[in-house]
Amino acid sequence: MVIAVILAAVAAIWLAVLMFLRRVWFYRDPAREPERNEAGMIVAPADGRVVYIRKIEDGGLFAEKLGEKIPLTEITGCDTNNTQGWAIGIYMSPLDVHFNYCPYPSSVESIYRKHAKVNFPMLDVWEYIRVVWLRKMVDMFERKYHLENERNTIFLAGGGLKMAVVLIADKFVAKIKCFVEEGQPLNYSQKLGFICRGSQVDLILFSNNVEFEVGVNQQVYGGKTVIARIDSGAPVLAGPAPLENQGPEAKSAG
């Protein structure tokens, strides 16, 4: 009888903790601002761990496992006119803040949405334990979810820099919310959107003149951590153009 009462109490505590994490902690909204103020700095668009930093050449990112380039259009979900630059991916675990933030003073050029019939899981059970609880990163580049899951891509331009923030859904994501609209001016750390539950955010920088200050497996904080610097006088490169039968979409996915 005593054991049954203890087990019931433990189960109730665990249930309360899970409900708190799911209903309260997950939706927390801390105030965010850049950790320092320097010209040309770029801040993280999301909380999480850096899963990759890749050079974009001739419109693609080289995938060692495949022995070929992955077209940038498969990540953004729309044509980018074979732009050169850099891409950085940030995995957001359920323990991270899930709001997404403006990485650089800019204006919203366009918003595109790519639908998916099925969203694939980003991690299996063991990988989830490694990443979320053991804080050890696994190789998440070149995976099926990265190219095929539903996503919202927000193109930004300002201060001589064009960029794209790609919000990628995980299998269990309920909704991708977008808080901005085309033509809207933004400053550092303003909210771009919110992804419900675990997910990934990629930042595409359409410039070769980028110096990163973070590395793979490093924890970053959206709207706060300076992840890179760029010469603010760099020329504006080619911007995005929609693929056939694809254009600006509604501001939420899911």
Features:
single chain, alpha+beta, Glucose Permease (Domain IIA), 2 domains, 4-stranded antiparallel β-sheet, about 15% helix, about 35% strand, globular, disordered C terminus
Explain the layout of strands and helices.
Layout: H1 2-23, E1 41-43, E2 48-57, E3 60-63, E4 68-71, H2 73-76, E5 85-92, E6 99-101, E7 106-114, H3 125-133, H4 144-148, E8 151-158, E9 161-169, E10 176-178, E11 185-186, E12 191-195, E13 199-205, E14 210-212, E15 219-220, E16 226-230, E17 252-253
Antiparallel strand pairs: 1-16, 2-3, 2-5, 2-15, 3-4, 5-13, 6-12, 7-8, 7-11, 8-9, 9-13, 10-12, 10-17, 14-16
Describe this structure as you would to a colleague.
- It is a single chain.
- This protein has helices at 2-23, 73-76, 125-133, 144-148; strands at residues 41-43, 48-57, 60-63, 68-71, 85-92, 99-101, 106-114, 151-158, 161-169, 176-178, 185-186, 191-195, 199-205, 210-212, 219-220, 226-230, 252-253.
- It is an alpha+beta fold and 254 residues long.
